[in-house]
Amino acid sequence: ITFPYNEDLMHKTIMVGDSGVGKTSLLVQYDQGKFIPGSFSATVGIGFTNKVLTVDNAKVKLQIWDTAGQERFRSVTHAYYRDAQALLLLYDITSKSSFDNIRAWLTEIHEYAQKDVVIMLLGNKTDMAGERVIKHEEGEKLAKEYGVPFMETSAKTGVNVELAFLAVAKELKHRA
Ligand code: GDP
Ligand code: MG
């Protein structure tokens, strides 16, 4: 017997990655279709936002949480990951350290998150081509190593932002 996908399910989704990679900006771009230049307060963030997407004619509900402040303390641990069904893990293509830290984030995720959590790796700030230090292929290679999907995004121009969340929703629906 196969049960139909439960459209009432709310999938807790969280934005993770180093401070400054663009987590808040990406969520604001997705939610409001705009880019607000300048840093959001590292400790305030925007809390969470609810979105309803359509996958194969079914509604998929995401409750997307912005990580704020915890990055610095690496205290985004068990309690925070516990009920997450999906994670958008970001680095900044102009920041080598944010890319190098992805391994540490994945280690933490594998330690604390649910085993079947949906992970999407995102290289953000593609509009800053002149300052790029991480090649697209490097992101792709890392993603392949960990068996997670990968995309490059720009919270500024909106490139791939909707696609990234849609990919997460598709994966959640197909796994259900
Ligand atoms: P967070 O700490 O991960 O939430 O990062 P923020 O969303 O606060 O962004 C950090 C800084 O990077 C801010 O100055 C943003 O305006 C900038 N930023 C974020 N995403 C992009 C992007 O895609 N392109 C450009 N050019 N700047 C971005
Ligand atoms: Mg933020």
UniProtKB/TrEMBL annotation:
Listed name of the protein: small monomeric GTPase
Keyword Lipoprotein: yes
Top-level taxon in the UniProt lineage: Eukaryota
Annotated GO biological process: protein transport
Keyword annotations from UniProtKB, A to Z: GTP-binding, Hydrolase, Lipoprotein, Magnesium, Metal-binding, Nucleotide-binding, Prenylation, Protein transport, Transport
GO molecular function, one term: G protein activity
EC identifiers of the protein: 3.6.5.2
EC class: hydrolase
Catalytic activity line of the entry: GTP + H2O = GDP + phosphate + H(+)
Residue ranges that the Swiss-Prot or TrEMBL entry lists as coiled coil: none
Entry keyword Hydrolase: yes
Cofactor: Mg(2+)
Family: Belongs to the small GTPase superfamily. Rab family.
